[in-house]
Amino acid sequence: MTTTHQDPHSFARPQQVRVTHLDWTANVDFASRTIKATAAWTLASHNGSAPLVLDTRGLHIHKVWLNDSEGTTYKLADFHPLMGQALVIDVNADTAKVCIEYTTSPEAEALQWLTPQQTFGKEHPFLFTQSQAILARSWIPCQDSPGVRFTYDAEVTVPTGLLALMSASNPQRIDENGCYCFEMKQPIVSYLLALAVGDIAFQKISGRTGVYAEPGMIDQAVWEFADLEKMVSATETLYGPYPWHRYDVIVLPPSFPFGGMENPRLTFATPTIIAGDRSLTSLIAHELAHSWSGNLVTNATWNDFWLNEGFTVYVETRIMEKLYGKQYAEMLASLNMQDLLATIAELEADGKSADTKLKLKLDGRNPDEGVTDIAYNKGYFFLRTFEEDYGRDKFDKFLQAYFDAHQFRSINTETFVQFISGFYQANYGIQLPTQLFNEWIFTEGLPARHPKPVSSNFADVEEVLMRWRISGTLTRADAADWSTHEWLHFIRNLPESLTPQQLREIDTVGGFSHTGNAEIIAAWALVAIANKYTDFYPRIESFLVHTGRRKFLMSLYQQMTKTREG
Ligand code: BES
Ligand code: ZN
Fold first, then answer.
1. Nearest residue CA, atom 15 of ligand 1?
2. What does each C-alpha distance from 462 to 89, 198, 457, 469, 493 come to in angstroms?
3. How far does the centroid of ligand 1 lie from the alpha carbon of residue 199, in Å?
4. pTM value?
């Protein structure tokens, strides 16, 4: 559970003094947009010779004491633009607990305070957190490194009429006093600390799965995620028992900046996956997969981020294959390969080729810079290489053993290399070639020999595209049975320049002007912007105004800046 190397994104010195448990008592105040709280940290045995160092960012520290009431000296160090401020607290050999009373800043980066107007119901305010990668420190003073694990208990008071949820055991209905207790008995890391407060309803899917959302959204959300229990069971047959007891999903208001966030026991999700046809649920499979890859076995530093995301895309794809078949999974994998190739080209063009290695060097940079398709999709295709080269059976046994051997621990890339090499040698007598690791992990770009997903559905789409290039017309019959994924493949592979008639015809056949499917809207918007297809502009404008998901905003604004009008 201890990492021996210094995490470049944390001031904490867990090798000297390390936390093991958090008792958090908090009061959420919407009027001042602050949380006033006490964080009481239990320490692992230590000899008192070194201080406890916590990460903070914008916190107002009121009082610090040891054990029950023993005073102590502490210092809030200078502000560092990337890392915030170290809180250095003097402890002695008898210090079992360190308590900090503090208030968050209204600008705390991890906290998004929404006005009623920004919610679906328009009547109550809403608060949600986003701690990954290094923002937990803006709402809880902590050893904000993915190499440090702890359990937690929390007691949170919110305005009456609102529900509070955390990445822990959760209530299912509103408490009339606005007082909620939480328990997380399994050790997690700080970026998985999470809180959501609002007018939130719950509906169960199965005995251990369910959906939270604003009351006006809950029915749609429950319908969309009807296969939630099937996803959990499918993952269990692949990789062993679900380790976190319950699995629930909360659908947040549209300003949530990500598609999903794998907060333990409670995935946070964007409403942009509520497509009305269940076509975007691979995102839920992805966040569920993190219950094993990421939350159970965690990247020790952000330089090893691919261990979280690459493994997760691999598991996600296997879940989707188990539920919906090989054809479906290969469409997802093909789209992933397109994204990966585009990202590599882009990073190279931007002079960031070094970021195309799986093992990153993010020291002195924001770990968000490592959130690219490299970690996700180069990571995925690397793992798929073992499957293709030596057989799925062997790789599945490896994965089970990998999760088992490192559960509730944080590991780095080098530990992974050692473990898989040892496993294949010991169990199968296979010597994995060093070159395989070198060319994927420590070399830029994509190795010449790499897995190539094959989708017959996409081959059909490509045929329609070819006929369309010759005939110039697209009919409803051409796309009669296309799902979201076939449409995405079609839109992405259109020629760069299209005539107004072509644009109008494709728009009509695809029904893009009426769709609520965010992936389709975003993909078609890129084409519309590039071709000055003004018919679609009102739809783009309303999409941009009503969506906070970074992936869509980034690609659309980037595309706009490429045009004069943009
Ligand atoms: N853990 C990530 C989100 C994340 C990564 C937040 C790094 C902050 C820093 C989550 O599991 C994720 O990958 N979300 C994706 C969806 C997925 C299907 C690719 C997203 O939000 O788009
Ligand atoms: Zn992820």
1. 259
2. 63, 46, 9, 10, 8
3. 25
4. 0.98
